[in-house]
Specification:
Blueprint: E1 3-8, H1 14-31, H2 35-38, E2 41-46, H3 60-77, E3 82-87, H4 93-105, E4 110-116, H5 119-131, H6 141-150, E5 164-168, H7 176-183, H8 209-230, E6 237-241, E7 244-248, H9 255-269, H10 279-291
Parallel strand pairs: 1-3, 1-4, 2-3, 4-5
Antiparallel strand pairs: 6-7
Helix pairs in contact: 3-4, 8-9, 8-10
């Protein structure tokens, strides 16, 4: 059932808002007499429930492991009778895209709830949390600044960040009813999502699927690298791959960045078994989502 991705700066109040959503959903479920609704349960996943400290964001490897832990927990929790609230930083758009695909693969709705606390207020809250030893504690200053610098704000114009609900700092509660209606529906009929070719799990892969997945994605990376070498210093650009167009960002994309995106895509699609004819178009789409 529905997946709610919570996004926002560190110390913006993500867990506070998540708990408000948990309380509202539980009240709504208990009050319902309709079997599809009354059978639902709410699962709240965050660093605390996963046993992760804020120090995991200090270096790349431990942060990657932390994201993998959240990803696995969300994937396990998604089901017909659950509403999953992923209350992590979720600040990388590629990671939000992966979770969006997982929700779509099980034919359920998803949304992003962005906690719109101003940065200055987040710093103030974080400083107070660091000083108050009775609390859970804030983020060390260097980690806080680094996470803010790398934060990729959700964009409601992209399908994986929509519908997007922004919660201003001064609002007493999130837009509970609007979120419920967008994800669950107004009547007793539960909303369903039709999976697309990129997310349908198939019982068996086509012959040489993994080989083709590796070969085609590497070939596209080589096209990008070659294009950038020939036009060194030129901002942006468009590369035509079959029927698709790669829209490069204004700053050159480094090889490590491209390899990271490729690894994420292969990991996401290793078990999904796309038709080999769809790999190129799907990877170009994934690249464009990361370049936006």
């Amino acid at each position: 059932m529905p997946l709610i991705l919570i996004s926002g700066y560190p110390s913006s109040g993500k867990t506070y808002r998540s708990n408000q959503l948990v309380d509202f959903f539980n009240t709504k479920i208990k009050a319902s007499t309709e079997s599809p609704i009354s059978c639902l349960s709410v699962i709240h996943i965050n660093d605390q429930t996963l046993g992760l400290s804020r120090d995991v964001y200090r270096d790349t490897r431990s942060e990657k492991d932390a994201r993998a832990a959240e990803y696995s927990a969300v994937k396990r929790a998604l089901g017909r009778d659950t509403i999953v609230i992923a209350d992590g930083l979720n600040y990388i758009k590629g990671f939000r895209y992966q979770l969006y695909c997982e929700a779509k693969a099980v034919q359920t709705t998803s949304c992003v709830v962005h906690i719109g606390t101003p940065l200055d207020k987040c710093k103030e809250i974080n400083t107070r949390s660091l000083e108050d030893k009775s609390q859970d504690g804030g983020y060390p200053t260097d980690i806080f600044d680094n996470l803010v610098f790398r934060f990729e704000e959700p964009n409601g114009m992209t399908r994986w960040d929509s519908p997007l609900f922004t919660v201003p700092f001064d609002d007493a509660t999130p837009p509970h009813v609007e979120i419920w209606n967008a994800l669950v529906g107004i009547g007793g009929e539960m909303k369903k999502v039709k999976p697309n070719q990129a997310t349908i799990m198939k019982p068996a892969a086509e012959a040489d699927y993994l080989y083709e997945l590796d070969r085609i994605t590497q070939k596209i990376l080589n096209e990008i690298i070659g294009w950038q070498k020939e036009r060194f210093g030129e901002p942006g650009g468009h590369i035509t791959i079959g029927n698709q167009v790669i829209e490069l960002p204004t700053t050159a994309v480094s090889l490590p960045q491209l390899q990271r995106v490729r690894r994420q895509y292969i990991s996401l699609n290793r078990q999904h078994s796309l038709p080999k004819s769809r790999i190129s178009d799907s990877f170009v789409d994934y690249l464009n989502s990361n370049f936006e």
